[in-house]
Amino acid sequence: MVEGGKAAAGAVLGAALGPLGVNVGQVVAQINEQTKGFAGMKVPVIVKVDAATRQFTLVVGRPPVAALLLKEIGKEKGSGKPKGETIGDVSLAAVKKIAVAKGADLEGRSEDQRMNQVIGTCVSMGITVDGTDPRTLLKERTGRGAA
């Protein structure tokens, strides 16, 4: 996990890539280039190295839903008491944007199911959706309520 656009050639990367003969500076530069759009968020990055050719490829994941929600509301962490303390509000459009951005990383097959997963994360973080308690919204959207 690296902070978007701020990877550094520190002990972790150096120790892992140095013995393989990979140019750590090039790896860091590519990581920063590919993650700059996620500034301020932790992003999962996998570096795959072909030991024979010393070539590397990067697999950059997407930040967790919780990180995307926190960025949307401008907070650094969720509520410690999500049932009683609200830390912010997101629009349904923002929920949809996050669900689309996460895509296949989420379990739902349809966009609505993926949106419901994002709304479920709002429940556990103390975030309302368009001023509505996310549990109420899930009940309306699914007819069942939050699990």
Explained architecture:
The chain is an alpha+beta fold. It has two domains: 2-60, 2-Layer Sandwich (Ribosomal protein L11, N-terminal domain); 65-142, Orthogonal Bundle (Arc Repressor Mutant, subunit A). The chain has helices spanning 11-17, 24-35, 65-73, 92-102, 111-125, 134-142, and strands at 2-3, 42-43, 45-50, 55-60, 88-90, 127-129. Strands 1-2 form a two-stranded antiparallel ribbon. Strands 3-4 form a two-stranded antiparallel ribbon. The protein starts with a strand and ends in a 5-residue tail after the last helix. The mean pLDDT is 88.
How are the SSEs placed, and which strands pair?
Elements: E1 2-3, H1 11-17, H2 24-35, E2 42-43, E3 45-50, E4 55-60, H3 65-73, E5 88-90, H4 92-102, H5 111-125, E6 127-129, H6 134-142
Parallel strand pairs: 5-6
Antiparallel strand pairs: 1-2, 3-4
Helix pairs in contact: 3-4, 4-5, 5-6
CATH superfamily of the largest domain: Ribosomal protein L11/L12, C-terminal domain
Average pLDDT across residues?
Answer: 88
Query: How would a textbook summarize the main sheet?
Result: 2 strands, antiparallel
Tell me the structural class: alpha+beta
Q: Radius of gyration, rounded?
A: 19 Å
| Fraction of helical residues | 40-55%
- The total domain count is 2
Strand content: 5-15%
The low-confidence runs, each spanning 5 or more residues with pLDDT under 50, are none
Order of helices and strands: EHHEEEHEHHEH
Q: Which fold name is given in CATH as the topology of the largest domain?
A: Arc Repressor Mutant, subunit A
First-residue to last-residue Cα separation: 29 Å
- Which second-level CATH architecture of the largest domain applies? Orthogonal Bundle
Characterize the overall form: elongated
Individual helix count:
6
User: Which strand order do you get reading across the main beta sheet?
Assistant: 1-2
Could you give the count of β-strands?
6
> Which CATH class of the largest domain is shown?
Mainly Alpha
